[in-house]
Specification:
UDP N-Acetylglucosamine Acyltransferase, domain 1; Spore Coat Polysaccharide Biosynthesis Protein SpsA, Chain A; alpha/beta; 2 domains; nine-stranded mixed sheet; 10 helices
C-alpha cells in the first residue's frame, strides 16, 4: 500500500570519533567503498523503497556534503520527488544550532508544512545497511503505531553502545535505556530469532531509524523539550504513545569510529560480503564520467577498485582503491583503504612538484602500506613504509593519526620519500 511519507536524513554532529576523516567534512560525506559517500546509503535505501521525498539535515562541515547532494540527486521536472538540503540556521525563534537528533527534527518541522504527508521516516546519515522501508512503514500503519523503531539483535559487548529496549510479545516497547553499562544488562535480554540467540545476540538495540505518525510527533514536541530521541524523547513517550519494535535481521553497522569504518569497508572485499553492492537495488551516487581503471603487472587478491585508477603495484591484497588513485611500480598494499583523489594532476604539475621534491597524488614506487586509510589527495613518496598495528598507541601528528592500530593519513597530507611510519 502506498503511504504518504517524507524522509529526513540526519547529517550528524561533529563526528569526533571519526577524526581525522571528519576534519574537513561531515560524517555523511565520508567516502566509502571507493566511490560512494555514506549519505548515499540511506538515500539509496529510500529510493529503492519508492520513497523519493527526502530532506538531508546538515550542520557541521557541510560544504562537501551539500555539493554532493546537489550534483547527484536531480530528478526530472515531471517528478514530485526531491533530495534537498535543510541546513541548520539561526533565526528569530532560536539562535541555537541543532542540539541533538530530536532538536534537529523539531527545528525542521516548520519547513515541512508545505508538504503533504502522514508519516515521517527519520534516518541516520552514517550507517551501512540495505533495508526495504516499505515493509517497516506497512508494519507501522497496520498496527496503528505512533512510533516504530527499527531494532537489531546485538551481543552484550555491543549493547553498551546503543539504546537497548524491551518489547512485549506483540512488539510494543515497554522499557528503553540508552547505552547501559555491562552490569545493567542482565535484565534486558529479549526474545530473538534462534540464529541471533546462538550468536549471543540477545539484546534489542535501536538502529536510530524511526517512523513517527505526523500528529503523534507534533504532540510529542509540543509537550516535551528533549533534544535527543534515544536519551529523552523515546523513554518519555513509552507511557502515553504506542511505540513498537520492528526487528531487522539483515546486515547493519553503525559507522561511529575509525575501527568500525575500516572494518566495514574491508569486509566488502570478501567473496560473499554481508553488504551486497552487486544486488538488483543499486547504490546511487554522483556520476563522474571517469575512465576505466588501468592495471599493469600487479597481483590482486580481494581488491575493490573505484573508477579511473592507474595501478602498477607489485601486489595489492584485501584493500579498496578509490577513484583516481595512482599506485607506482614495486609497491605492496595490504589491508588498506585508499580513497583516491578529487582530480587528476596534469603532467606539467607533476614534473614541477617532482623537481621540488613533492610526490604526486597517490602511492609512489617501492612503497609498503598495511593497516592504513589514505584520505583524498594524500601523497606517499617513493620508498615510504606505513605499517599500522595494535602496537601503535592512539595519537595525532601533522600528517597522520593513529586509531585502534590503524594509520590514517590525512587529506592532502604529504608523506616524504623514504619516510617510515610503524
Amino acid at each position: 500500500m502506498k503511504h504518504s511519507v517524507i524522509s529526513l536524513v540526519l547529517g550528524g554532529g561533529r563526528g569526533t570519533r571519526l577524526y581525522p576523516l571528519t576534519d574537513h567534512r561531515s560524517k555523511p560525506a565520508v567516502p566509502i567503498a571507493g566511490k560512494y559517500r555514506l549519505v548515499d546509503i540511506p538515500i539509496s535505501n529510500c529510493l529503492n523503497s519508492g520513497l523519493n521525498r527526502i530532506l538531508v539535515l546538515t550542520q557541521f562541515n557541510s560544504a562537501s556534503l551539500n555539493t554532493h547532494i546537489k550534483n547527484t540527486y536531480q530528478f526530472d521536472y515531471f517528478s514530485r520527488g526531491f533530495v534537498d538540503i535543510l541546513a541548520a540556521e539561526q533565526n528569530a525563534e532560536s539562535d541555537q544550532w541543532y542540539q541533538g537528533t530530536a532538536d534537529a527534527v523539531r527545528q525542521s518541522m516548520k519547513h515541512l508544512q508545505k508538504y503533504d504527508y502522514d508519516y515521517i521516516l527519520i534516518l541516520s546519515g552514517d550507517q551501512l545497511y540495505q533495508m526495504d522501508f516499505c515493509e517497516m512503514i506497512d508494519y507501522h500503519v497496520n498496527n496503528n503505531s505512533d512510533i516504530t523503531i527499527a531494532t537489531i539483535p546485538v551481543d552484550k559487548d555491543a549493547a553498551t553502545g546503543f539504546g537497548i529496549l524491551k518489547a512485549s510479545d506483540e512488539g510494543r516497547i515497554t522499557d528503553f535505556i540508552e547505552k547501559p553499562s555491562l552490569n545493567q544488562l542482565a535484565d534486558w535480554k529479549s526474545e530473538v530469532c534462534p540464529q541471533s540467540k546462538a550468536q549471543g545476540k540477545e539484546f534489542l538495540a535501536s538502529m536510530g531509524i524511526y517512523i513517527f505518525s505526523k500528529n503523534a510527533l507534533k504532540d510529542i514536541f509540543s509537550g516535551h523539550s528533549g533534544d535527543d530521541f534515544g536519551k529523552e524523547i523515546i523513554p518519555h513517550a513509552l507511557e502515553d504513545y504506542k511505540v513498537l519494535s520492528y526487528q531487522f535481521e539483515g546486515y547493519w553497522t553503525d559507522i561511529g569510529t575509525i575501527a568500525s569504518f575500516f572494518e566495514a569497508n574491508l569486509a566488502m572485499t570478501a567473496d560473499i560480503p554481508d553488504f551486497n553492492m552487486f544486488s538488483t537495488k543499486p547504490i546511487y551516487t554522483r556520476s563522474r564520467m571517469l575512465p576505466p581503471t588501468k592495471i599493469n603487472g600487479s597481483y590482486m587478491e580481494k581488491v575493490i577498485f573505484g573508477d579511473g585508477a592507474i595501478v602498477m603495484a607489485d601486489r595489492i591484497e584485501n584493500s579498496i582503491i578509490g577513484n583516481r588513485s595512482r599506485v607506482g611500480r614495486g609497491s605492496i598494499i595490504r589491508n588498506t583503504y585508499m580513497m583516491g583523489a578529487d582530480y587528476y594532476q596534469d603532467l606539467s604539475e607533476v614534473e614541477q612538484q617532482k623537481s621540488e621534491g613533492v610526490p604526486r597524488f597517490g602511492i609512489g614506487e617501492n612503497c609498503y602500506v598495511e593497516n592504513a586509510i589514505l584520505d583524498k589527495n594524500s601523497r606517499v613518496g617513493d620508498g615510504a613504509r606505513i605499517i599500522g598495528g595494535q602496537h601503535m598507541p592512539d595519537a595525532d601528528y601533522d600528517t597522520y593519526s593513529v586509531r585502534s592500530g590503524i594509520v590514517v593519513v590525512k587529506k592532502n597530507a604529504v608523506i616524504p620519500a623514504g619516510h617510515i611510519i610503524q
